[in-house]
Every structure is written in structure tokens, then in C-alpha cells.
TrEMBL record:
Function, as annotated: Catalyzes the aldol condensation of dihydroxyacetone phosphate (DHAP or glycerone-phosphate) with glyceraldehyde 3-phosphate (G3P) to form fructose 1,6-bisphosphate (FBP) in gluconeogenesis and the reverse reaction in glycolysis.
Biological-process GO terms, alphabetical: glycolytic process
Matching InterPro entries: Aldolase_TIM (IPR013785), Class_II_FBP_aldolase (IPR050246), FBA_II (IPR000771), Fruct_bisP_Calv (IPR006412)
Organism per entry: Limnohabitans radicicola
Family to which this protein belongs: Belongs to the class II fructose-bisphosphate aldolase family.
Keyword Phosphoprotein annotated: no
Annotated protein name in UniProt: Fructose-1,6-bisphosphate aldolase
């Protein structure tokens, strides 16, 4: 059944676990997340970006997620709009039946220019006022995602600041976070701690200077009752990069957010962990392998099946690692 984000995150906080929020764009990804959750008894957050809504088309996104509630009625499911860039986008998502929206006021409507604190408070509070009337939860973001060494947001064409960011923009300030939560009344707060979207997050296995888990602890100490959200949290498994390259891919050396660091963050208030890239890598690796090994095959279902299975395994692994087993 469709539930609000607030309900799931409150339960996660009381019981000390974190919920991966998986980005979905199509049928196979929805099936992968849902079957993984079903096998381990996990609650589900499916999220659709503006890009996903554009790729699938609004009716398809809406009905794919509704189909999931029909096929798996026993699984508590949140349908979440990822990175809404304006109150209008959030409004549109609520009209489509989303039970949760993210108003990302850390950037201006272009999704590239860092916004002022005042702008962020204003748009986020407006969305909270509108959404809460309809029982819809709201995630806000304070701070800009970006690599602490290079000042780059990553993701050329995705969601991320353009140009160089400085350190203070890329690390959410605990005091400002407290003011932000108080001024907006949001349900969950996305914070910036050195992660970024996409596969190219870190040029080496991250240490405390480039992945600021200590900042999660400081923020959680200041606002212990606020559910924290980590974006850019794919772990970018080295095995998947190797498989992709073994079967004709050309990905460069790169490192993601280690699962142990996420587990540490979950001990300190992180309840929602956004993952998109890892599913992309898993599906691409499986698809490349299948097509190279079976050059005579041409039925799309034959290569989508191993891709869907690989995505499912990845989701299942994250559910177990973040403590979701049996929590649904
Ligand atoms: O926030 C970024 C997510 O990975 C969504 O990516 O905009 O390509 O759908 P997308
Ligand atoms: P990744 O690119 O690390 O999977 O992050 C996804 C994300 O934050 C979606 O909002
Ligand atoms: Zn994100």
C-alpha cells in the first residue's frame, strides 16, 4: 500500500535502520526493487526524477508505481519525487499521486546555480504548506553535493551545481540545518557531506577528509529528531566496473561511498539513502555480458532478464546491509 515517507522514516528511526531509496525509470527497475524487497521483507521507497518522468512519460510513471502497489499490496511503498526543482514540479508530482516530494531548493530552478538560504527556506516552506495538507511528506536539501577536493558537483547533464563550489557550500552547517528545519517544518533533510551524483564521485577510496561522515554526527547531535537523507550514495562496486570493462565498456577508475560508511551514518540519523548509479552499473554489466556471450540473440526480454536480475540482487544486498530485513 502507498504510505507517506514520514511514516516509513519514523519507523526506521525508532528501529535504527536506513531505507535505500532507489531511482526507477522503467518496468524492469520497478520489478527489481519490489521483488528484492518482497524477498527480504523490506519497506520500499521508489523515487522518480524529473528525468524519469520525462523518459517514461507521466502516465507511465504513475501507473508503474500504482501497478507495484497492486502486485505487492502487502509492501509499504513510498512514491517519491526526487529533486523537485520548483514548487510547481512538486505540485505536479502530488497531482500524479506521489506520496512524498523533494523540494531541492539548494539550487535555483535551473538545477545548476547554488541558491541562497532565504530562497531555499521560502520554496521549501511553500511546498511543506501545500504537501502536508494532502498528507504528502517533504524532503528538503541544505548544502550542495560536490567533491571536496575538486569542488565539482559531478553529473554533467544531471542534477548538480555548475562551476566550482567552495568547501562551506559542500558541507551542511549544523546550526543552519537547525534553523532550516525549524523554518520549513520539513519531514526529512538531505545534507551535503562530500558525495556527488553519478559514477565519478572519488578518485580514490574515500577517507574522512573527502567523505565527511563526522558531519553527519554533528548535524544529528544538533537536530536528533530530524530524519537525514544521503544523496549520491551509490557504492560503485569495483566488480561491476570490471565486468563492464571486460565486456567492451570503457569506464575510468572511480570510487563510490563504501557501505561501511553508510552503515556508520545510519547509526547517526541517516534514514534515507539515495541509490541510482549502482542499479545502472548492475544492469549495464549484466546486459553487456549477456550480449557478448550470446551474439545470436535478439529478443529484448532475453537481455533485460539478466539486467533485471542483477538489479534485484543489488537492491537485496542494500536492504540487508542497511538493516531493512523484516521491517515491512
Ligand atoms: O539525482 C540524480 C539521480 O541519479 C537521477 O538521475 O536525472 O538522470 O534521472 P536522472
Ligand atoms: P547515485 O548517483 O550515487 O546513485 O545517487 C543517486 C541520488 O542521489 C538520487 O537523488
Ligand atoms: Zn540526489
Amino acid at each position: 500500500a502507498l504510505v507517506s515517507m514520514r511514516e516509513l522514516l519514523d519507523h526506521a528511526a525508532v528501529n535504527g535502520y536506513g531505507i535505500p531509496a532507489f531511482n526507477v525509470n522503467n518496468l524492469e527497475q520497478v520489478q527489481a526493487v519490489m521483488t528484492a524487497a518482497d524477498e527480504v521483507g523490506a519497506p520500499v521507497i521508489l523515487q522518480a526524477s524529473a528525468g524519469a518522468r520525462k523518459y517514461a512519460g507521466e502516465p507511465f510513471i504513475k501507473h508503474l508505481i500504482q501497478a507495484a502497489t497492486e502486485q505487492w499490496p502487502h509492501i509499504p511503498l513510498v512514491m517519491h519525487q526526487d529533486h523537485g526543482q520548483s514548487p510547481a514540479v512538486c505540485h505536479g508530482a502530488i497531482d500524479l499521486g506521489f506520496s512524498s516530494v523533494m523540494m531541492d531548493g539548494s539550487l535555483m530552478e535551473d538545477g545548476k546555480t547554488p541558491a541562497s538560504f532565504e530562497y531555499n527556506v521560502d520554496v521549501t516552506r511553500r511546498v511543506v504548506d501545500m504537501a502536508h495538507k494532502m498528507g504528502v511528506s517533504v524532503e528538503g536539501e541544505l548544502g550542495c553535493l560536490g567533491n571536496l577536493e575538486t569542488g565539482e558537483a559531478g553529473e554533467e547533464d544531471g542534477i548538480g551545481a555548475e562551476g566550482k563550489l567552495d568547501h562551506s557550500q559542500m558541507l551542511t552547517d549544523p546550526e543552519e540545518a537547525a534553523q532550516f528545519v525549524k523554518a520549513t517544518g520539513l519531514d526529512a533533510l538531505a545534507i551535503a557531506i562530500g558525495t556527488s551524483h553519478g559514477a565519478y564521485k572519488f578518485s580514490r577510496k574515500p577517507t574522512g577528509d573527502i567523505l565527511a561522515i563526522y558531519r553527519v554526527k554533528e548535524i544529528h547531535q544538533r537536530i536528533p529528531n530530524t530524519h537525514l537523507v544521503m544523496h549520491g550514495s551509490s557504492s560503485v562496486p569495483q566488480e561491476l566496473l570490471a565486468l563492464i570493462n571486460q565486456y567492451g565498456g570503457k569506464m575510468k577508475e572511480t570510487y563510490g561511498v563504501p557501505v561501511e560508511e553508510i552503515q556508520e551514518a545510519i547509526k547517526h540519523g541517516v534514514r534515507k539513502i539515495n541509490i541510482d548509479t549502482d542499479i545502472r552499473l548492475a544492469m549495464t554489466a549484466a546486459c553487456r555480458k549477456f550480449l557478448v556471450e550470446n551474439p545470436d540473440k535478439f529478443d529484448a526480454r532475453e537481455w533485460l532478464k539478466p539486467a533485471r536480475e542483477a538489479a534485484k540482487q543489488l537492491c537485496k544486498q542494500r536492504y540487508l546491509e542497511f538493516g531493512c530485513e523484516g521491517q515491512a
